[in-house]
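Final report, closing paragraph on structural work. Over the funding period we assembled a curated collection of sequence-structure pairs, and we close with a single example.
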Amino acid sequence: MPTYFQRPENALKRANEFIDVGKKQRALDALYDVIKSKKHRTWQKIHEPIMEKYLDLCVDLKKSHVAKEGLYQYKTICQQVNIKSLDDIIRGYLALAERKTEEARKASHQAVIDVDDLDVIQTPESLLLSAVSGEDTQDRTDRAILTPWVKFLWESYRQCLDLLRNNNKVEKLYQDIAQQAFKFCLNYQRKTEFRKLCDNLRTHLTQIQKHQHQATAINLSNPESQQMHLETRLVQLDSAVTMELWQEAFKAVEDIHGLIALSKKSPKPSLMANYYTKLGLVFWKSNSQLFHACALHRLFHLTREQRKNVSKEEMERMASRVLCATLAIPIPASRNQMDTLVDLDVSAIDKQRKLATLLGLNTPPTRMSLVKDLMKYSVLQYVAKDLQELYNWLEVEFHPLKLSGRVANSLEFIKKNEELSPYVTAIEHITITRLIKQVRHPLLCRYASTL
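Its predicted structure, as stored:
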């Protein structure tokens, strides 16, 4: 070993000399030699400036894999002595990578990059397309500036998460980095990386459950650990909804429900309110009006029970939406007892039960049960005045000749309300269905009496 490696301070001094003459790779090699040296495996204060300089060079040279190797060595050095140092070093490294990437975005004219997968930047198709599309010099320059930095930042997030997984000493850092990675996917519209990140987190959670015997393993029975995991999964769900990745959003909902099931302590009401809100949106986007309405029912009851300072206006807004969502549920076709017995679509029944489980229900809801809940739980007393009679006209009273005129004002109110307007078409269909059924019934009775 060279003499300047005998003491870590000398290695740092030598690296600075290399940097002064523009030899950054030589400086990086010198620092890595002292980091991996078995002679210097006992943590000292000098290790921090060495790692900071090492990671600065990795960022400048865009060498994420070299940064990963150094971080693994540093984790071994300081895990038992000073875990706070590892936390500070990793946070500083990611902050620098984020800052450099943001500077690259400002320097280029691109807000996001048009590469589908950062792990495969150049494909035969993209090369051929660029050759025939007449791409100008500015486009190529922008891509050359921004793409390498975005790829470097993505690799840095992924490698840090792999480094910190299933380690209770750095659990908070792991969750913070996961949330930063979701924010990165949002800022740069990285849908492919978002899916990979979700898969990685699920793999890590599976590993936590399999390796509970390890000394530093995360205990999922710990309320604090459960809370951190739930908060990260809610960020995942929020990001999936914002990016309109509805399949990933549904997977995130399943992840959240699985974590809630593991919990021995009830999650925070604010967390559950966010969960029901996003779950309702996912159901709406998947055309599951029944479960969408059920999610809004759960949210309304949770808010009324847990929040003591809810304003009258907010209760009116929530109740009006619950009413409209419930009335917008399609009316199921009339079926006799034999039809019910013959219906043995096991997959459909299992799907209904699975969706009900996500809402914390033992049995799937029905349109009739949710309509009854409007009265049972006094939801109607909170709805807007323009909607208060809509329930009676569509669900209680029988006036086929007056129905259209009576609901006209309520439908006009719904159309003008931005939050309720998505339900207007479905409620119009329900009105027509009710009208046809109400007119059809006396005609059938009259026809039967003539036979």
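The chain has a mean pLDDT of 85. The CA atoms of residues 76 and 160 lie 14 Å apart. We thank the funder for supporting this effort.
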